[in-house]
Each structure stands twice: as structure tokens, then as C-alpha cells.
Fold these 2 entries.
Entry 1:
Amino acid sequence: MMNRVLTALLTTLLICSLPFIASAQILEGASEIPAEAKSQADMFRIERDQAPIARNYLQQPPLIPHAVKGYTITKNFNKCLDCHSWARYSETGATKVSLTHFKDREGKELNSISPLRYFCTQCHVPQYNAQPFVKNTFAPVTTMQKGK
Amino acid sequence: MKKLKPLIEKLKAWRITIGTAGALGLFAAGIIFWGGFNTVLEATNKEEFCISCHEMRENVYREYKETIHYTNRTGVRATCPDCHVPKDWSHKIIRKIQASKEVWGKLTGSIDTPEKFNAKRAQLAQNEWARMKATDSRECRNCHNFEYMDFGEQGRRAMKMHAEAQSQGKTCIDCHKGIAHALPPIDQNIGHQNDNAIVLPHGEAPDKNPLDKPQSPDATPPK
């Protein structure tokens, strides 16, 4: 009697768990990334130092034309401004921070960069040599096109 | 006195042997003492020793582990003593004697919490910057040397700045502060976050160096 009950219980348990086992296998299969794709993802490198990159549209925050590895922005220190601040740019040859960054949230002009603009990399990003997955037909606005 | 005479005579006969044995004994003792001294000195010159104290392990060592001197593409690593202890003996022993003050710091717990450490970070950093400036960044130059640099292999920015720095007689630490550890609060004139904190010097000419004392207001301006 006891054996029969036990067998019945175990069988029910097995049948009930079948869908879960199957779904787990499907998930496992789906999460598998071909080794080739993985190695390609690792191949992207930050682009070497270059001259300032032309903007594609008027309001675009200029791209960072150099590596920023190890350049930290912390409470204590903003590495970007060590070259790009108005006090430093002429010595370092860096692009100086735009005057648009010298306003507080009410639009009041400040005598230095607004704390609102402290986190440079929120808008300004370095470039990797990765190519876009999908081609697009984007063209800069006419005002940005040279020779027009 | 009479009894002593034969003994003195005997000793006189043996004096060369005793002298030689004594000299050899002193020589051997010297080797053992010197060897022991140097072994202990070298033991204190290892990274394991530096980070055996939590003051170093939990603060500056952690920061250093995120930097290029810890891990990089070529697998060359500069450990604590490579930058912070001179290589040649005389400068090393002077630095070691100066560093004995750190033992006192350890005993009195002057930087034994992150809060205490960060409160003293500016002072500690400036001490090390001043030391490196005074020695023309000697420890950096164990590996890096303007003469060995191929500026052509460097990026645009590095090429420009290194050539300028070399012609102006600047030294590594003038520009490369905070490359291996976090910087103390620096006043960059952004809002009021770090008001009245130190200003980061970049090897400016002495009269422009913000670390130098400001000139008294009644000094006559140059005509």
C-alpha cells in the first residue's frame, strides 16, 4: 500500500515538472551565443587620438576624439576639466568648454562651469571602431555640410 | 704577576693566530648581520608588507588596482615600492628612515579609518608630489625616460605634451598626478563642492605655482 502511494506521488511529481525541465532547456539554448560573436564583441577598440570630429547635427554634443580610460569624474576631481577648462585649455591645446555650460538651471550666467554640467560623459562620448549593424541614410543638415 | 708572565708569553706566541681568528670571526659576523639587515630591509620593500596594514590595503591599494600600473596589455606591473622607494641603496636607506614616521602613524592610528585617511589625503598626496618633484621623478624614470620615448608612437595629445614638457624641463609628476591613486579634493572652481581645497599644480613656473604662497598685497607691482 505504502509503496503504491509513493510511486503514484513520484509519478505525479515527474509529470508536473516535465514542462519546467523542457522550458529550462529552451532557455539554455536561447542564451547560447556563438563563440564567434563573443570574440567579435571583444575586438572593438577605442579609436586613437584624432582631431576634433565634425558634428552631424547642430545640437550634437561634440564627440570625444580620444581614449578616456582612467579619466575619472569624482566628487574630488573632474579629469576632463583638467585640460578642457578655460584655465587650462590654452596650455593643453584642448577644446574649451562651451559658454552654454556656464548657466544655472534658471538661466543665470555663472563665472565658471555650472555644477549641472559636471558629468561630461553624460553627453560627450568616446568612439569605438565598431561599425553600425544597420546602414542608414542619415545626412547632416545643410547648415553642417561643408561647401554648401 | 709572575704567574701571569708565562700566559702573556704564550699569548704573544699565539697572537697572529688569535688575530686572524678574530678578524675572520668579525668578518663572518659582519656578513651575517649585514645579510640579516638587508633581508629585513628587502622584506619591508615588498607589496605584501605594504598591504599587510589595512590603511594601505583598503585605500590606496584598492585604487591602484583599477589603474594601468596594476594591469595592462603588456603585463608589466609596477608595485608599491617600484614608485615609492628609491632603488639605489643610499637614497633607499634615507627614505626608509623617513618612513619610520609611518610606524608612529600606524601606532597612533592617524589614518586608520577611511574618513581619517581621506581627511589627510591632500597632505599625504602633496608630500609624495613634493618628493617626486624634488628628485625629478626618479622612481618613474626607472621605467619611463624621455630619451627612450618614441613620440611618433604616441597619440597626438601625448606627443604634443611630452615634447613641450621636455623642452620646458618639466618632470613626470608635474602632469601625472593621481594616475595610480585617487586624488584629494581639488578646487576646480565648479560650484562650491571643493571650495578652498587645494589647486592642482601642473609644474607651472615658480611664481605661477598655486602651491606657492601668494605675494603680499602691498608688494610693488612691476613697472
Entry 2:
Amino acid sequence: MTDIEHRVRARAATPPPRGGARAAGRGRPSRRARLGPKLGRLALFVLPGLLAYVLFVLIPIVMTAYYGFTNRNPFNPPTRWVGLRNYTELATDPEFLQSLGNTLVITVIVTLLANAGGLLIAMLLDRATALYLTLRGMFFTPVVLSSVVISVIWQAVLRDDGLLNSALRGLGVERPPGWLSDPGIALYSIAWIITWQMLGFCVVVYLAALQGVPRELQEAAAIDGCGPMARFRNVTWPMIAPALTINTVMLLITGFKAYDQIQVITNGGPGTGTTATMAFHVVQTAFNGNHVGYSSAMAMVMLLLVASVSVAVLRTLQRREVTR
Amino acid sequence: MIDARTHAWLRPLVAVFVGAVFFLPLYLVLVNVFKPGADIVPHPAALPLPPTLDNISAVLSRPDHLFTYGLINSVAVTALSITVLTVLSAMLGHYLARSRHVLAKITLVTLLCGLMIPAPVILAPITIVLKSLGLMTTLQGLVLVNVGYYVPFGVLLFMGFVRSVPLELEEAAELDGAGKMRVFWQVVFPLLRPASASVLIFLGVWIWNDFLTPLIILGPDSGTTVTVGVYRAIGQYQSDFGSVFAFMFLATLPILLFYLVLQKNFVKGLTGGAVKG
């Protein structure tokens, strides 16, 4: 960091020739004379960052959109235009519909649980003594960890011979649940793991919002005869609306793109695709099946879903903030 | 809600209990890193007395150097990516915040759209672009992809802060004869320090912890990052919890320290963004 900063500063310290030309022609430079430095500045300030974005986000998204209408498979050329065939196939593809359903289940559970839990814990920890500051740090730790690390930790806890079931057997439970091996449970275990991972983020955002609620408002409401419940509903809850917006959008996006936990822990199983999410299905189809055309159509559905749901939720929640 | 006066003892009790339950999985990892492998399954929650460094030295002395090579790759990719990202997104964010040109508005909207694109959606075409540039399975390729993918986030964060820098400061420096570059690096950029800290730490943590993108881009043969190394290691160690936990502990330690050092700025940056929306 500092090294590059110094080098850039050193270069900036020697006046650039074009800037110098401009300084010389002070007063009212002609349009042509002004265009030079303007273009130079554009090239320096805008182009490098924009170029990387165009190369690795904009062009790829256009390619994904295009491939969605083709049968592209790098190991089975030639690539042909197939119109909407991929999309009509998706509408009746049981594997895809299952991954869509799994993604929605995970997203709904994570959004509701992490929001509710985050708010409750934030209210519990809304004190400034050392004990509560330490606890805040503990809740925030998973946010800094890789989801791969978190997945391995929870796998060690939840697998059939894992730490939780050993403990349960020790307590006399003869047949503890197969948290990751029972097709009816595994999806909820994954949702729980993502919730645990995101909880600290919500706690921190809610704590920041709670600290912005003026004490006088709480006291005024108390004097007017409001109990704790009424104070929360009428003072705190409307005041922390922006935090709800941030957390909900963040959790929605996290839920929709869930991938790492599935790849590391279940690989889509147990059984066929019981925990496969859309992101997992897209990557499997593209890189293991090499059906890039079909997976691109899937990816476009996923993108449109994430974008429309997050924008709709953002709009709705922000309207609530304005009219409070 | 809990009435503060009558149940003053209840809050710390509940808080500690909830915190302990929440933290239990991390506690299990921490104690078992320093415990002999044979003791882990029979006594998972016991304190490691006396502590042993066997698990850690086993990871460090792996014959395939999975950890050490991964660590070098991770440090190189993360440090390069976040340095370039901070510089480029600060300049781009400053330009876009100050320009009133319609093209700047269009550029901004295009960039913000990129914030919503999950990586799996564009990963297959990214590999095609990288192959055509001859950068597939290289660290440089991974750095460039990181820069392109995270530049919208950096721009968004910097733009919010640029608006808090008075335009008069820049005009004063320009009147004194400083060029645009000099104004930016000597006047504006130092004032953006909180934003730079937030960008460095957010992106540092995200890029260090990233799994899918390095897994695909670096491929199976040309080495991995340390995070992908954790994934590779669990396949080999099977149920040797001690080695797996030690690998994860070592893989997490650098980024955790990085985070702790910049933490004060980080939380400030987080809430700063929260208020500005």
C-alpha cells in the first residue's frame, strides 16, 4: 500500500505536462486547449478501473445473456442459436426447479432468522461495558471468517459421528438426527449455518441503529405512559428502519447466492440435489457438465430473480423509512 | 423487553449464555487445535492441557506444502488486489462524484448494477475472457478479476466520502496552481482515509476468504489460495480433526490479525455507510 502510494505521490508531485499547459493558458482557455487535460484526466482517473469492470463483469454478463440462447458446450462444437429452448426446458426441469425451491427456502429462513436474532441480540448487548463489548466481538467473529472455514467447523459438529451427536449419545439419545445425512433435515442445517454466519453482521448494524435512537424520545414516551413494548413499537422500531433495510437486502443477496456451504459440506446431497442451490446448480452444469449454454440460461434466471427481489424489497423498505 | 431496574441481573446472565452457545463451535476449534488428535473425539470440549503444537507443525511440514504455498498465493493476491482496488476506485469514485456529465451518470448506474451480479452467474464467461488474454490459471488473472468484480463496491464507498470533502478545498488548491492529479493525491486522497480503510478491510476479508473464484480460476494444477487449501485439506485428512482445525486456524490467523489492526476504522466505516445509505 504505502509503497505504491509513495510512488504515485512522487509522480503526482512533478507537474504533469498537460496540467502545466493548462496553468500557463490561465484566464479563458479555448475549448480545444481545455479538451487536452480533460481527456488526460479521464484516461487516468476513469479508464483503468472501468476497463477491468468492462472486461470481467460487463462483457461476461453480455456473454452469459447470449450463451443462454445457444447450445454452447466447449467440448461439443459448433455452438448454435437455439432461441428460447433453454428457457422452456428450464421451466419443466425438475432438478432446476428443486434448486430454485431450495434457494428460496434458504433465503427466507436466513432473512427472517438472522434479522430477528440479530435485533434481539443487539438489544441484549446495547450496553457499553467491557462484558458487552467482548460479546459483540464474539458475535462478529464469523463475519470475518471464510464460509469454507465455517462450513468445515459445522460439518465437524453436525456430521453423523460429529461432536453434537456424540454429545447427544452421551446424554442417552439413542438415534440422534442425521443433521447433514437426512434429506429432510440437511437443507435446514445449511440454512442454519448461513444464519449463524450472518448473525453478527446484523447485530452490528442494529447496534449502530439502536445507538442512534435519542434517549429523550424513549424518556418522553415513558413519561407519557408507554410500557417497554409500546416504546419499542412506536419509538425504537420506526427509528431503526434503515438498519432493517440494509440487513434484509444483504441477507437476501447472501441467501440467493449460497454456494460455498453446499460445495464443502453436502455437494448437493444427501440423495439427488436435496441441498443444491441455484448457484451450485449453475456451476455444476457449466464446469462439470460443460453445458455452458444451458447453465447460462439458468444463471440469467438467477440474476433476474436476485435483482428484481432485492430492488422490490429495497423500494418497499425504503418507502417505510421515508414515511415514518 | 426486559425491565432494566427489576431484572438488572438478568441481562448479563442471558447475554453470556447466548454468547456462549453462539461461540461454542469456534471454541471447539480453538481448543482442539492444541490437543493431541486421539483426545479430540472422546473429550471435544476439554481444555487442551498440556497444549501441544503437533497439529500446527504437521500442517506446516506437509510434504506437498499445501499450506505454505497457499499462504504465499493468498497474501500476494489479496495485497495486490486491495492496493489496486483502493487506488483505482478512489480515483474513479472521485471523478464520478464530481462530474455532472451525463456519461458519468450512465457509468455510475452501470457500475452499481454490477453490485448485484453474483459471481457464479459470470464465472464461465470470465474463464473464456481470461483464456483469450492468456491469463487463465495465473495469479495475475485472479487479481484482475478481483479488481473488475469489486470496483463497483469501492466506487460506491468512496463516492459517499468524496461528497463530504468540501469542493472549495480542491478549488483553492487548483487556484494555487496544482494540477488535477496533485489535487487528488495531496488534498483529496488523505481526507478519504476512513473510506480507504473500509475498502481495504472489507475487500481484504472478502478476497482472502473467497472460495469459488480462485477454485475455478487457479484450477487444480497451478496451486491454490489458502482458503481453497482448507477445502483440499478436508478431503485428505478425513476425520483427523486436529490437522483440519490447525489448517483452518493458520489460514484464518493472518486475515483476523489484519482485521483486528484496522478494526476501529472498519466499524466506523460500516456505520458511516449505514447512515449515508
